Amino acid sequence: MAAPHDNDPEALIPMLQAMQGRHGGLTRAALVDVARALGIPAQRVYGVATFYAMFDVPPRPGRVIRVCDGPACWLHGAARLHDELADALGQRWRIERNSCLGLCDRAPAALVDGAQCGPMRGASDVAGRRGSCMTPARYATPRPGETRVLLANAAEIDPDSIDSALEYGAYQGLRKALAGPPGAIVDEVEAAGLTGRGGAGFPTARKWRMVLQEAAAQKYIVCNADESEPLVFKDRVLIDTNPQQLLEGMAIAAYAVGANEGFIYVRGEYAPQAERLARAVRQAEARGWLGERIQGSAFTFRIRIHRGAGAYVCGEESALLESLEGRRGEPRQRPPFPTTHGFRGWPTVVNNVETLSSVPAIVRNGAGWYRSLGSRAAPGTKLYLLLGHVNRPGLFEAPFGLSLRQIIDELGGGMLPGSRFNFALTGGAAGTLVPPSLLDVAVDPGSWASGVALGAGAFLICDRSVSPVALLRELMHFFESESCGKCTACRVGTHEARVVLDRLVAGIGRPGDAEALTELADVLKTASFCGLGQSTAIPMISALTHFPDAFQGRSDQGT
Amino acid sequence: MTVRFTLNDQRIEAEPGQTVMNAAQAAGIAIPALCHDRTLTPVGSCGLCGVEVEGRRGAFTACTLPIVDGMVVRSETAAVLRTRRQILALLLRDYHDAGYASADPETEFMYWVRRYGLPMPPAREPRHAVNSDPNPFVWVDLNKCIHCNRCVRACAEVQGRFVWGIAGRGRDSRIVAGADTTLLEARCESCGACVAYCPTGALDDKLSVGAGRPDTIVTTTCGYCGVGCRFDLHVRDGRILRVASNPHAAVNGMSLCVKGRYGHAFVHHPDRLATPRVRRYLIEGSGRPPGRGDWVDTDWETALTLIAEKLAGIRRASGADAIGVLSSAKCTNEENFLAQKFARQVIGTHNVDHCARLCHASTVAGLAMAYGSGAMSNTFDDLCGHAEAILIIGSNTTEQHPVFGARIRQAVLKRGVKLVVADPRRVDIAEFAMLHLRHRPGTDVALINGLMHVMLKNGWQDQAFIDTRCDGFEAFRATVEAYTPEAVSLTTGVSVQDLNEAAALLALNKPMAVIWAMGITQHTTGVPNVLSLSNLQMLLGNMGVPGGGVNPLRGQNNVQGACDMGALPNVFPGYQHVTDERVRAKFESAWQLEGAPAGVPLFTGVPGMASTDMVHALRGGKLRALYIIGEDPLLTDPDLNDVRACFDACEFIVVQEIFPSDTAARADVLLPAAAFFEKDGTFTNTERRIQRVHAALKPIGQALPDWEVLAQVAKRMLAIDGRRPVGPHAGWDYPAPAAVMDEIAALTPSYAGVSHARLDRGEQLFWPVPGPDHPGTPILHVGRFARGKGMFYAIDHLPPEELPDADFPLLLTTGRVLYHWHGGEMTRRVKGLLEIYPESLVEIHPEDALRFGLDGSRHVTVTSRRGRMRAKALLTERVSPGVVFANFHFPGDQNINNVTIFALDPVARIPEYKVCAVKIARVDPA
């Protein structure tokens, strides 16, 4: 088992994935054998195997349906779906809940034997793997108001054919980049004002320049495709519509900073997307756009696809690097930052899929063109994920600075008939609960200060049938399940908050519960080790601020 | 260069890169922490040490916050204190205390809970079983675990064992041993480091859980091996409650080994000798019956008088040299000094020796020949901090010097020291080696010559060092010429490639330190083996430099000191030779007696007998009496069937002991001695570091410290002969061991500056300490060798005395294991140690097992031309095919010394425990 991986402990997770696939799980004895073969302590192998949700220790028999536990699916009756499947199929299948599957545009969704299915209406949809398709044709036509860069030609390009992508200009950005010095690329991206699209909005060129300036024997580009934040599925769509665009973006980044090796860390639940990327890499290598001496230049760049194994925390860049090195996905102490001490301790650029996918067009068309697309403060376009009680949910691409009202009314086709806006969750699970009073705030990377987070670009629109307390309970349940357990605040704090919210949702709240939540939000924000832990306080604080009455005692409104 | 920062309005200077936590601790400002310990990698996970930094938003964990010049930090603001209380409250939510340890000392966690005034939350259901691991020493109660992970880091970073890990995720995460198994199955060495670091009692000392708080805490030095760990003894009502790490221990810090931390129960064992005993025939004045007859309990006066009269009689009748004294490497320096003073001054013989004869006699002799001084040249701190490469040859370091073994693991893990291990067995430390050379037992000279051949051929020698500081190089070079890798490979079984690679690793990574133990010394070629290693270190210029040197690891707690004190037949204290007239004159006048026949010197200029020779001198009556202090030759000498016969022939044997040992069973007078927990004095560890021993307990029953017994016997013998002390140091009225140390200092140049007062002030003294103001000498041979120039010796390989043949087809090599100590008198009386290692095991390679019809771990006999033992077979690839390994920890027919050979190195008189020929046979249950 270890031999194909050169007995390299870094390959522990792929090895365990292969074993899990072959034997339906991992026995302790098998884990001890792996440890011996790799020459690492048994506890390390066991610790990794029990950290990731997709490993079964010990093995459990039977095929599995993982019903999505995310907020969009929750709104669309995932709990009912789970119970129905368990009743109807429980004899033959293991029916389990899974943290958000990133199939929010197909809610309620499930992984049936690994296949991404949805919307699932019931047990009868299992056999046919309903909705199990990888080309979201629904994004072929832009909706009114969209500006498409990332999704340009989304309908025309065959995502599984590099030739098709080349017809639409793939790798022309890289060709242009290779003609100049690496520093020029960084300058161009800086001039374009590209910022990180994963949620934090850090200037991309600044990160690149730090790595470029490091005098190191090795440098790496790591693409963060661990899209595990509930309500966020944009990276999946980008991979499913134009994987070569991402590979090209990585190659340009690598050239710009002086890296020769790159990794795409794809979340474990995105198995079909990982396969698609692997195919795209093979094709690009065959055409000479990746690999040794690209297009006859002196530049060599290889990309390896790494599949995660089920852990939201691995979206945190330092946890991702730990995971990529074959360990538990626990965040690292920062500083030092990945730009100086990243993968294997070498300077590393970690960028989100959307960020890297934005790069080819910038290089091809120039910074001026890119800046012309958005506002001065936030140039370029952004993918928006619109979900909930609107007429046209789904994904679209538009410049920054739309207000929530515009998003709902103009791009979302308005609230569902009979629905009245109650609040929106914006940004993602670790986003803000937005009351009607903030509907006209222009949303951009800076608008969190006004109470409306852009985050990764998710917008869950809730009508009066949804209680903010109930939604918050779902979010805390997610954070609790996904806490890595390293720091006190997140490990215990998310659990304690969920217990209080359970009470409130069940209508058996106690005096002081709101104060307890305020206290917990405070310690989560102040004392969590990593950004993910700190961000769990954001929805709590906004809900407590804008909907104080909902936390007083009984709370029986909503789903 | 320093950086300055402000902490709570106090200006503090710090090292660049230092964390706020460490600088605060150094400045005496306490910032609470649970996951942090200054000796572990900071992780910043508990969140308790959060502080505010002016100009930055949020809180920062002080344990991970590097100081920036001019930084302004506050650790006691209202917001910070509030967060701390919140964190403690969260930790308490998941903490479940069943109350069984409420009388025990307060844990760190409870200290902070109390300090911050938090109420205990209502108890929840416990989530885990209490006492969930069967390890006899480590108590596990995960209900008290607060996920600080100190145990995980302690096991990895301090002990280098990686037993503890974290499994699961989030609130369900927990510490696990290995792949969620028992500690012992997960290769736990039961060192208890995890316990020492645990802030909550989730991991605790199983023997001490619920034992309550101590009355007194006494810091003393461990009495097991020569590493010289120090620890705190928690004592109440005359019993040891717990051995706790003392973070200020100079040698070991928080580390201890399983024996040091958990092997103390023997001191309270019912087998302890508590009353003087004499044989009935001595009381009745009748003839000595076969087997010496019954024991009679008696009082000290009777026993001491009897001894004095009997020894005085033999001395008068047959001369002083008819009496021999075996001193003990377990006793203090002060006691060893008195033992040889007793032999030399009171009896008048140089027949004094101790068990160094059986372990490092060849080291002492060989290094004295080559360099002029026979001790470890560098220190642990120096080796671990400065060596770039280390050669461990013939030392099972992690089992025999466990805490030093752990420090070597640390050096490999943290500093990337290049480690080469040469050992016929795959000893545990070989796991950490870049290269393990498995040479055949008894081929050390060939191996080392082979390595030096390669080095010379490549021109890797330090010619400047050789030219300026050494003699004898050309003859040496000519000899090594013949040891080509090809020839050496045939002799040793090590491949040519490995020889070349090892030579390069050792020669090209400087400085390189050599470490050895019994695998080098216990051969008929013990001295040549040592000389080969001294050649190697001169060749590479690794002497007298930090991170290099020759580093023989001494076995017993005070075997270095026992040698230093002159419990050897050829030297007075401080290696002052008995053949040197001026030395004799000095001791004559210091110890001068009045009433002795005028003109007859106290002692001759002829060295006395080595212990291995004394035993055989018993048979012919050349030696009529033996005075044995704490040694057990009837368990530890080779070829015991012969040794027993020799002892049976001996007329009068006195034994001072703590237990009824095999040797005690052949004594005529048996005196109850104090154990080291009950003693005051000093031990000198293998590094030449002199450390204090403090009594934590009163001696059991009527037992007395060995020094008091010796003084009593001495005074009585002098009185019988009408001799009176007149020399300045001739008397025997010592008020306390400190006074003995003053006499040692007066007569021993290398200890001249040593006093209990200096040691009690915390001074770390490595001898030589030539004066009261001298700071000691951590590294020997700097600039010049003790003998002037270092001497190369031309050494050729010689085969061992007895090699396998058709009748005895297997090669037996012997040694010890982690869980027992030497003859096992102490460790076999510690329940938990016996639980882990209950009986004698013989390591046999699976191929040999097949050959001799062993299907699994059955009982076997191991037979040589001299005798037979019986043990359980342990089938393992730790030994090579054709080699078996056994230990001498168990008495009677389980003892491998029934089988070993009495063959001595001609110079050092050390026996060849490491090689003889045996056969094995399966024992079928009757």
Report on the architecture of this protein.
The complex is a heterodimer of chains A (559) and B (926). Chain A has 559 residues and is α/β, with parallel strands linked by helices. In chain A, the strands form three sheets. Chain A has a five-stranded mixed beta sheet with strand order 10-9-13-11-12. In chain A, strand 9 and strand 10 form a beta hairpin. In chain A, helix 8 runs parallel beside helix 12. Chain A starts with 11 loop residues before the first helix and ends in a 13-residue tail after the last helix. Chain B is of the alpha/beta class. Chain B has five domains: 88 residues, Roll (Ubiquitin-like (UB roll)); 138 residues, Alpha-Beta Plaits; 291 residues, 3-Layer(aba) Sandwich (Rossmann fold), CATH 3.40.50; 192 residues, Dimethylsulfoxide Reductase, domain 2, CATH 3.40.228.10; 113 residues, Barwin-like endoglucanases (Beta Barrel), CATH 2.40.40. Chain B is built from 31 helices and 39 strands. Chain B is globular. The model of chain B has no long low-confidence stretch (mean pLDDT 96). Chains A and B meet through helix 2, helix 3, helix 18, helix 19 and helix 20 of A and helix 2 and strand 7 of B.
Give the key terms.
heterodimer, A: 559 residues, Rossmann fold, 5-stranded mixed beta sheet, 4-stranded mixed beta sheet, globular, B: 926 residues, alpha/beta, Ubiquitin-like (UB roll), Alpha-Beta Plaits, 5 domains, 7-stranded mixed beta sheet, 17% strand
Please list the strands of the largest sheet of chain B in the order they lie side by side: 14-13-28-27-26-15-16
Quaternary organisation of the protein chains: heterodimer
Q: CATH architecture of the largest domain in chain A, please? A: 3-Layer(aba) Sandwich
Alpha-beta classification of chain B:
alpha/beta
What is the CATH first-level class name of the largest domain in chain B? Alpha Beta
What structural category do the secondary elements of chain A indicate?
alpha/beta
Low-confidence stretches of chain A: 555-559
Number of alpha- plus pi-helical segments of chain A: 22
Sheet bearing the most strands of chain A, described?
A: 5 strands, mixed
Shape of chain B: globular
Largest interface: A-B, 41 and 41 residues
Terminus-to-terminus distance of chain B: 76 Å
Number of helices of chain B: 31
Number of domains of chain B: 5
